[in-house]
Structure formats: C-alpha cells, structure tokens
Amino acid sequence: MLEARRIKHCRVCGGATQYLIPADDNRHRAVCTVCGEVHYENPLNVVGTVPVWGDQVLLCRRNIEPRYGMWTLPAGFMELGETTAEGALRETVEEAGARVEMQGLFSMLNVVRAGQVHLFYRARLEDINFDPGPETIEAQLFHEHQIPWEQLAFRTVRDTLKFYFADRAAGQFGLHVGDIG
Amino acid sequence: MLEARRIKHCRVCGGATQYLIPADDNRHRAVCTVCGEVHYENPLNVVGTVPVWGDQVLLCRRNIEPRYGMWTLPAGFMELGETTAEGALRETVEEAGARVEMQGLFSMLNVVRAGQVHLFYRARLEDINFDPGPETIEAQLFHEHQIPWEQLAFRTVRDTLKFYFADRAAGQFGLHVGDIG
Questions:
Q1: ipTM, 2 decimals?
Q2: Is the Cα dihedral A135, A181, A31, B93 positive or negative?
Q3: Across the interface, do A14 and B10 touch by the CB < 8 Å criterion?
Q4: What pTM was computed for the model?
Q5: B9 vs A11: CB contact, 8 Å cut-off?
Q6: Percentage of chain B lying above the pLDDT 90 cut
C-alpha cells in the first residue's frame, strides 16, 4: 500500500525524481532531478462512525475493493476543507445514506503498515431509512450477537466494535487509542 | 498553504494534469491528461508533545519559517512508518534534544484552513539537559506565569497550553478535541 504512493515524477515540472536524503533532512524523499522540488509522503487519516440505533449498530457491506463483500463501519479518507468529525459524518452519508447525530471521538488507531490513522466517532442514527451509495452493497443493523466478526473488512473496525460493546456493557464510553501492526 | 500543494504533473508518468471531477467521485482531483492517474490531496497530521518538568513546560524558539523566532511546543509532520506517539516523541528529540516519557493523548485540533490535524501528547521530561536541533534557536522551561503568550507560533500551541494549565489546576487531564478556523 505504501509502495503504490511512490513518486516517479515531479508534481511541479514533471521531471524525473530520485529518492535521496536532502541536505537538511534525515529521510529519503522523492527529489526532482530537474527543479529540485522535494516531495513529502505522510500518513493519511481515515475517518468514520459507529452509527447506533437502540442496541443495534449499522454496518455497510463493501461494493469496492479492497475487501469487496465484507462488512465495515462507514469510513473513508479525510478530505481537505473538513474536520475529522465532518469527514466522518460525510462518509456516513455517502456510504450508508444514513442521518446521524455526531457524538464523541471514540477510537484513534494507528495502522503503521498502511500509513494510516483511523478515527471513529460514536453517532446516533436519527432514523433507519438507509440509502447506501455506490460503494456499498447493503447497509444493515446488527445486534451484538449478530455481528459478522469473521466477515469484517478491517481490523480497526473489529477493534472499534469490540471497544464499543465493552464500553456499553460497562456503562461508560471512553476514548480508545491503539496501534495495529 | 493548501495552494502550495497543487499538482501540475502526474507522479507516475510526468504528464500534465487537469483538475476535474472523476466519474466515480464528487470532488476536483488532479487527473493526468496522459495516463489518467488520479492524485488525491488530503489533510496531514502534525504531532507533538507538552514536555513537563515539575511545574514547568518546555518550549522551543523556532529557527525556521514560518514564525521564525516565535515559541512553540515541539511538533512536526507525522512520517510514514511511525505511530502518532512515535512521531511526537521523535519531534521532541529532534527539536528540543529532550528525553521524555510519553503520556496520554492530550489534544486533537483540526486546522481546516491549513489542511492539518494537530495532535499533542503529554510527556514527562527525564532530565533538563536539552540539545536543540537545527530547527530550534533555544529550548527553555517556563512556569505558567512566564509563558510568552504573545510570542507563540501557532494557535494550536496556545490552545493546548491553555488546556494544560486549566486541567492541571483542576487536578485531572482529559482529551481536548477542537476545531480552529
């Protein structure tokens, strides 16, 4: 996944780049062999929600790769011009066609190998008329005992759901910070 | 700041890009007019610490632009291959030459106009022998009444310090989530 981001040409002039450690730096960067522009590559945020209706949680079945056909919480890459919470709300609308009231930040999970940080907010569903977008096959509510644990798309989704049900049982929701591989 | 990231050439083939909304998307992206590669631009994380020695906090005076000569908490862009906490620790070593024991996540502040999310951790200084790197003019400990509020480099630094002293006075440290312009 990290490899896919490799930069072969300069975004400013189109010249060929070379990976080297710039004079004032300590990491390899794609540096343009023509104009000298330095290209930085950094982790990205994935933002989403745990949408809840009573004691049920909303999951979406993925209509896209990776993990086509598997279940996920609504989430996606944070975009420029929005906050983490706004991005999480947008993804919930886009992927599930669901209306939610946003609640607190619930999990922040580093996925180092993917170069990602996953942030999930708790959210209260305002109704159960879902209208999934093109990235979703179906959106469905699950009681805890119905969660398809073996068909979840991502480990951060599994961990966040585990945290959610544990906190719910304990009667208090906290913030869960963790690292994955 | 967002403008500076504009992508004029394709990173894969070097061809000219054009900003348009791809068929399966709803935002303008830099799309290569030659090979069709779509280039995404997303917010970046800035990670840092609030390094504490007794009732003093460590600040660094910036030796680089922007905000040359102003004071900041040690912080910088999160890099690939590290967690948010590892990045915050690395920046503390690089900018202040300080040894710290990392503590909990303390603030998460969206800076929408800059396309950034700032994350600060509390950290306990293990000694007070600082060895600032080239990005720092000097590193200095401040009691609360000595903080140079008018010479702080960034609003997220000011807000995080305000939260820190308020929580300390209250006897309990929480997580502070907020948005800035």
A1: 0.94
A2: positive
A3: yes
A4: 0.95
A5: yes
A6: 96
